[in-house]
Amino acid sequence: MKKFTALLLALVFMAAVFALPAGAVGFEPPFEISGKAAYIVNTDTNIIVYEKNSEESLPAASTTKLMTAILVMEQYQDQLDTVTGESSAYIRDTIYTFGLEHSALANADIRLGEPHTLRSLLYACLVPSAADAAMILASTVSGGNIDNFVYMMNSKAKEIGCTGTTFVDPVGMSIDNVTTARDLYLILRYAMSFDVLREIMGTVKWDMGQDFMPSRYSASNPYNLYTTNMMIYEGPGAEYYRKYTKGGKTGSLEDWQNLAAWHTSPDTGETYISVVLNSPVSCDPYPYQKDHPASYETGLLMDWVFENFAIQPAMKTGEPLAEVKVRYSTDADTVMLFPADDMMTILPKNTDESVTQKTFQLPEYVTAPVKKGDVIGTVTLSLSGQTIGVVELTADRDLDRNMLLFTLSKIGEFFGGLYFKVLLCVSAVTAVAYVFLYYRYQATRKSNRRPRRPSL
After folding, report:
1. Crossing angle of helices 89-101/131-142, nearest 10°?
2. Cα separations in angstroms, 100 against 65, 92, 151, 251, 305
3. Fewest CB atoms less than 10 Å from the CB: which of 83, 91, 136, 297?
4. What is the pLDDT of residues 345-362, one digit of tens each?
5. What burial letters (b/e) apply to 88-124, b meaning 16+ CB within 10 Å?
6. pTM for this model (two decimals)
């Protein structure tokens, strides 16, 4: 059953992915972000509203944990509160060794012999980005074989359409964990198909003591973990906080940060997924923070998107777009064509449908009878040179066929057609041949009737 559910989710997700257009709408913000790559998609229309180097492979850092969480959900989504995981000497030593060679990793203070449910471990993995929780989850799913888990991660990435992603560990410790802005969009979108993961990624604080409380914690010293995503953390998030941001996952190594998040307008309900990769710490203007540059640049981009774009109709269904000639009808010489739907799409605010470019695919004429609603042609809509959709054009009325006109036309077509011309030529040749043969026959007959003189 779990495998069937996972397959069904994958098929639904891939159907959505393949519905994506080939390019962005083509508008650029009045500023340049410092992040090496970015990708923003409106999920209501599947239109890309902004992209920068979206196919370039860059270090994924802790956004890697999204794939770890996805594999846990596909294997154990019905057992999150009954299956537990524990740390091991291998996990402890791996994290400790990495901390000695690089910088210390975020952790959930999970020690040997302390069992936590998979649900609690998922919260620890995604909320404070705890490395120990991610390793425990990977070990639990793979039966202790982390290499096999990494193989599963890469297989899943390919399955959902990633083309520039490679994982080498389930945490994001190594700089060799790489992804692209577009791939990370696909991964986050897939993770969001699980309601549990959506809830977790939108959580600011999690109490790890709900299912197991170590003795070193107490009511006065609670076992609480806090989000690394400042865009959802009102108060401590200060200038980074945005009311429209609903959740996401951060990742950082060295002197830069990644952020994959989703955002919903509180006024219109429009939703976007954004990815910003490798924003340098130097671009963060807030000196008392300086470690949330991707949050800062995501805020810049999304403020620009929400201030300048809205979902609007690209056409008005009550207004005709084209006119086509009609043959064999005395009701009218032409039929007006109306769009079958208004095609809601992303357009700049304070504009109307005239901002789009329309390319028509229409026949030279149609023949009666015509029924109201018949599809006569299509119109392709483009915005800034990028195709945003194709809409059918339908007839606005019924038009009956006049049988006299139809019959006369067919007679005219017959006499003016190639078949009749060939038939006429053959008949003429036949007639000439007949006349020639007839007169030749008559001449021969007359010659045979002349009397012959008797011989002497």
Report:
1. 140
2. 21, 12, 27, 19, 42
3. 83
4. 888 887 766 677 889 999
5. eeebbebbeebeeeeeebbbbebeeebebbbbbbbbb
6. 0.79
The answer to whether the beta carbons of residues 31 and 263 sit under 8 Å apart is: no
d(CA 158, CA 190): 12
**pLDDT score for 13:** 44
Q: Which residues, 6 or more positions from 381, have their beta carbon under 8 angstroms from its beta carbon?
A: 314, 315, 343, 345, 356, 357, 358, 387, 388, 389, 390, 391
Residue at 204: amino acid letter? V
46-56 pLDDT per residue, tens: 889 999 999 99
The 3-state secondary structure of the chain, one letter per residue: CHHHHHHHHHHHHHHHHCCCCCCECCCCCCCCCCCCEEEEEECCCCEEEEEECCCCCEECHHHHHHHHHHHHHHHHCCCCCCCEECCCHHHHHHHHHHHHHCCCCCCCCCCCCCCEEHHHHHHHHHCCCCHHHHHHHHHHHHCCCHHHHHHHHHHHHHHCCCCCCECCCCCCCCCCCEECHHHHHHHHHHHCCCHHHHHHHCCCEEEHHHCCCCCCCCCCCCCEEECCCCCCCCCCCHHHCCCCEEEEEEEEECCEEEEEEEEECCCCCCEEEEEEEEEEHHHCCCCCCCCCHHHHHHHHHHHHHHHHEEEEECCCCCCCCEEEEEECCCCCCEEEEEECCCCEEEEECCCCHHHCEEEEECCCEEECCECCCCEEEEEEEEECCEEEEEEEEEECCCECCCHHHHHHHHHHHHHHCHHHHHHHHHHHHHHHHHHHHHHHHHHHHHHHHCCCCCCC
Please give the torsion angle defined by the CA atoms of residues 244, 292, 66 and 203, in that order, rounded to the nearest 10 degrees.
Answer: -50
Q: What pLDDT does residue 4 have?
A: 44
Residue 101 has pLDDT above 80, yes or no: no
Q: What is the pLDDT confidence band of residue 141, given thresholds at 50, 70 and 90?
A: very high
